[in-house]
Design brief:
The complex is a heterodimer of chains A (262) and B (266).
Chain A lengths: L1 H4 L8 H25 L10 H15 L1 H32 L1 H15 L3 H12 L3 H25 L3 H9 L4 H38 L5 H9 L4 H29 L6
Helix pairs in contact in A: 3-11, 4-5, 4-7, 4-9, 5-7, 6-7, 7-9, 8-9, 9-10, 9-11, 10-11
Chain B lengths: L4 E11 L6 E12 L4 E5 L6 H9 L6 E6 L2 E2 L7 E4 L11 H7 L9 H14 L15 H14 L4 E5 L7 H18 L2 E5 L3 H7 L2 E5 L6 E6 H4 L2 H6 L4 H25 L1
Parallel strand pairs in B: 3-8, 3-9, 6-7, 7-8
Antiparallel strand pairs in B: 1-2, 1-4, 4-5, 9-10
Helix pairs in contact in B: 2-3, 2-4, 3-4
The chains are: A mainly alpha (262), B alpha/beta (266).
The complex binds adenosine-5'-triphosphate and magnesium ion.
InterPro entries (chain B): AAA+_ATPase, ABC_transporter-like_ATP-bd, ABC_transporter-like_CS, ABC_transporter_ATP-bind, P-loop_NTPase
Family (chain B): Belongs to the ABC transporter superfamily.
GO molecular function (chain B): ATP binding; ATP hydrolysis activity
Amino acid sequence: MFKSLFAFRKPLNRRTDLVLGITGFILFLTMWEITVRSGVIRPEFLPSPVAVVQAFVNLFVERNFASDIVISVSRVWFAFLLSVIIAIPLGLLMSTYRFAGAILEPFVDFVRYLPVPALVPLLVIWFGVGETSKIAVLWMGTFFQLILMISDDTKRVPVEFVESGQTLGASNGQIMRHIIIPAALPNMIDSLRITMGWCWTYLIVAEIVAANSGIGHVIWSLRRFVKTPEVMAGIITIGIIGLLTDQAFRYAHTRLFSYLRR
Amino acid sequence: MDNFIQIKDVAKTYWSNDGKIETKVVLPLSMTIGEGEMVMFLGPSGCGKTTLMRIVGGLETPDQGTIHLHGDLLTGPDRRRGMVFQSYSSYPWLTVRDNIKFGTRYRKDISAQEKEEVTDHYLNMVGLKRYADFYTNRISGGMRQRVAIARTLASSPDVLLMDEPFGALDAQTREYLQFQLMDINKAEKKTTIFVTHDVEEAILLANRIVIFSSRPARVVREIKVDDILSIEDRRNGTADMDRFFKLRAEILELIRAEYAHTLEEA
Ligand SMILES: Nc1ncnc2c1ncn2[C@@H]1O[C@H](COP(=O)(O)OP(=O)(O)OP(=O)(O)O)[C@@H](O)[C@H]1O
Ligand SMILES: [Mg+2]
């Protein structure tokens, strides 16, 4: 039993995986509770897990937190999809035609390194404090990363796949549709999953700086009253949503690409 | 048809990335290959066999010279020249059967019904019927290479280009595939260029063996194996062993001499 846990670079069975994952959380919560009870840290700074759970419930009952969650999730998905539908064709174009790569790559690399938080004031000047500027922040933060990731994913398709397609009589368009895209798809879905994570990071940036709704706004406005349990509940909400989204992506990945399993 | 494939004055030079070091890979080289002929390329490692084969396949452009197939000037890759690569190029997102069927996908000369039949025909020929619905990462390397060969055959190319297709396989699988290739050749008489490092494999399969010099590749010797050992004898294992070993020794000596040049240069 123990020996199988330490099998070098071998997968565990699903049950064990799940149990270990939950154990990690329980360990963390226990340490937390112990720290609070020991009284080393004042509860204004670190409330107990129980207080956070209470605050979590309060948020829903008293502050209509559910609607903030819906707003944040919609913003994330809207910006995410907007990034995806533009980045995929451009990424494919970039990896396929040298000229497109030559034109886009230096520019994309440049923008990619601009710190998104620093762009927020500019985006607010351009788009105001409405929804547009928030979407713009998320989009700026993800699009330029995603386009390079998609381009890399397709570049990594083995040359033999493309060349065998050519000698089987496929046209360039057919090679793209029938070989390159199916070959790169598993990695592309992974890239989307990672991008989704960044969306949440930038969402909070956007909502803290300029918003009157959404999870980030709730967290930031409660901070002023030092409602630490509520602030932590808000943060944990994001963690939970992130975890669920990530798991959904992973699940879809294993279902769609069962052929990758050995 | 004797000059089914006509390679004329083909030359290729590679340049290092900074454009300073040139590597002449193929000297102006001419050669003809007859219809239905099985030609084996032998030569020291790095001499330019793959390069020449890729030029014939249209995957590499020569700096000069031309390739004609059946009198047509060839420019890029197409279905007339099917390539089997050394690395396994079967598609992981398709099952064994769908991989083979992919070979028929761009054919316009047969109906959808016939495509199914062709697929089953080659599926059986390479002995993978039982694995038809397996994805290719669940089958062995040898099976994957059989999938790649069947897929290429299903596309019905005029010329089959095989670059050390059995190089990474174990001895038994290799032998099994060699005999399968002989069967295919008997049934269909496919014009084939086959690169190998295995002299016995070359003698077993060839109508003609072409031995190349060290880089840049030029033809050192051509041997019509058919004149020495009949193809039937080789297939049935009744070939004269004395002649076989004499031929093998002669070829090995030629390659060894060329290989020595490669080392001197390095
Ligand atoms: N794309 C390339 N760019 C630069 N040099 C190359 C390229 N492809 C091949 N070469 C060089 O050309 C020479 C011939 O290569 P090639 O692959 O044709 O040899 P080969 O005869 O097939 O060797 P082997 O038997 O080891 O497969 C080698 O010295 C190699 O380094
Ligand atoms: Mg080679």
